[in-house]
Each structure stands twice: as C-alpha cells, then as structure tokens.
Amino acid sequence: MRLKAETLDYWRAPDPAPLRHAQSWLDQPGHQLILDADPRYPARLRDLNDAPPALFYLGDPDLFNVPQLAMVGSRNPTPAGLRHARQFAQHLAGQGLGITSGLALGVDAAAHQGALEAQGMTLAITGTGLDRVYPASNQALAERIRDHGLIISEFPPGTPARRDHFPRRNRLIAALSLGTLVIEAALRSGSLITARLAGELGREVFAMPGSVDNPLARGCHRLIRQGAKLVETADDILEELGPLLDNVSKVPSSSPREAPPDVHDKDYQHLLKHLDNAPRSIDELVEHTGLAVDAVSSMLLILELRGDVAMAPGGGYQKCRP
Fold first, then answer.
1. pTM above threshold 0.85
2. CATH class entry, domain 266-319
3. CATH 1.10.10.10 in the chain, residue ranges
4. Domain named DprA winged helix: which ranges (predicted)?
5. pLDDT tens digits, 279-303
C-alpha cells in the first residue's frame, strides 16, 4: 500500500503535543492501550482492511472477544423504540451475549442500559478520545459502562467529536459483532451505514419492523426488503445466531456486576415529585431537589428508559405517567 505524502511526513516528524497528551492519559490508573500484535486484540476486527493498529480502552479487556450483538438506531426514538431496545438488550445480555453500541442518545443508550440492568456485558465504541464523553449527557452512563463493561476508541485522547469520526466508529461496531440489530432508523440514518458494513463483512443483519406511519420504521423496512432478518422477539436473534453461540458463557469476567437501580428509592421518588407536564431542565431539577448534577442525570436516564419521563421537544424533562 502506498502511503500519502502527509502520512509519511507525520511519521518522520510527529507532532509531540498529541503524543504527550496520550501518554499523560495512559499514565492514569485504568487507562489502557492494546496493539494489534497483542493476542487479546479483537480477532473480528482483523476482517477489516483498515483495522486500527491500536485501541485505547477503559474497563474489562476480557470482553474484547466475547460473542456480541450490535444494537443501533435513532437518537430520537419513540417511547416504544426505547422500550424495545432496553428489553431486547436485557434479554440477550441475560443469555450471555455482549451488547455493543455507540454510546449515542436514544437506542444506543437504551441498549447499554438494558445490558447493565441484566448484569450482563456491554461494550461502547466511541467517536472521540476517551478523555471525553459525547454526548456529555451520557457521562453517568459512560462511567457505569467503564466500571462494568468496556469502552473502546481508536482515536487518541484529546480527539473531539467530528462528523467523519462516526462512520469510522460504526465500522468497528459492525466488525466486532456477530450481527447488527437496527431498531427505528430513518432512511438517512447512520444506523443503516452500520448495517451495510455488517453485511459487507458477512455478519448477520436484523431489523425490527414498525408502523407504516412511523418515519423511523422506514429505514428498517428498507433493510428487510434488502434481505435483513425480520425480528419480532429477542429469541428470533438467538435462534439465528444459535450455531455461533454454543460456547457462550454467562459472564466471562470475575469482576462484580452492579444490581439494577431501584426506582422506588427515596431519591428517585423525590425527583419525580418535582416533575410534571411542564418541561424542567436538569439545572432546575438540581436546584429544586438538592441532588447532585450527576445523580440527577443518571436517574433521568433510568426513568426515561422506563417510560416514566420523556425529553420535551424544546429541551428539559417532563413526567409521562401520573
């Protein structure tokens, strides 16, 4: 392969500032780098022509090579889409399948959360350096995945979110997994890129059908017309992947797994008392409840995935149930 002139120039005289920043990040406890020569390097990534030569990671390296299902979809799904993502991830993670996604809002976050609630395995692939979380509102979720799963990036610390980074992230999501499930995707959704890449790599592609009146079902319907497996239950996926899952263990790591959060806890109930039909920002809720910002953000995520609260179109959160 012939390298571009600017690539050769970089390797001859690399910019020392990013290297110093990456080294400073790696010097911190729990911050790790794995090279493609390492036997623990994810074997499925070797199917890529442009497999990253190194991966930065936080969490449990035993999860690099567990059987995984990618779950992707809209950043603004319907309540039903959120519920399906969480419930499918719970069931599949409970059966020992790793749930892999991109730590985005919507379906991605719900899939990660469902796996955590099942005390199962989840892997997050990011489009930024691991010294930042994008979107920032998923900070609490990212910390839970770091402590009970695995977060991976090919981008060195200090790398910001850029539009062209996310297709690169998507190819890793597709390659790491045995198959990709798409839940609610518009016709121009990035989730369809992940599904296409999965198909090109010989992975299974699954799609959940929806109402013909739902614009977020159209991407899934297109995938089904193109040959994706129509999925109605989580067991449909287990049946299809069955021959590949004979040796799946429940949880390969000996690290402790957290119990699902108790939404009947007094802090959750205290937060719910300050929510009604009028949207309230996180700052308002922090001010009125006296709870910490990270606690409010984490609890709102749990309550949103349960369908108790919803993000209002103009921002803020409102109660869904009386």
1. no
2. mainly alpha
3. 266-319
4. 256-315
5. 888 888 888 998 887 677 767 767 7
